[in-house]
Amino acid sequence: IAYMGCLGWGSAYFYGWGTSFYYGFPWWIVGAGVDDVARSLFFAVIVIAIFLIGWGIGVVFFFAVKRKHSMQELNVFRLYFAVELLFVPAIIEFSILRQKIQVPLLLLSAAIALAVTISIRSYGRFLSVSCFYDKPFIKKHFFEIV
Questions:
Q1: Please, what's the largest Cα pairwise distance for the chain?
Q2: Which of 31, 51, 68 is a domain's end point?
């Protein structure tokens, strides 16, 4: 409940500050009332529900595909989607700022993710994560690096 309350107040203030920036009045006169917090909480709950539904669909899809294919075949798709997820937040941000979906960026990110996936699958055996961890400096300062 405290998390949702802080999320509601924070979202209300950020919404107010964004509105003040857009319309050009000073940000320090922004106030968040009960109705602003309620609206922000509603948006937060809706976004959390969308994330949970998407997660559930992903889990169901994963188990359905896992039954039909071996895990070795799925590793390529998992790697591709992991690399693609690096680009998605930036594309969403550009789409929001431009107020339309940025199809060229989507295609570019898909191509880059595919190239990175293919190169990792082809040449990944030459670069092991253990070669970084075996270095004395990294062993000594592992917790500071992480």
A1: 59
A2: 68
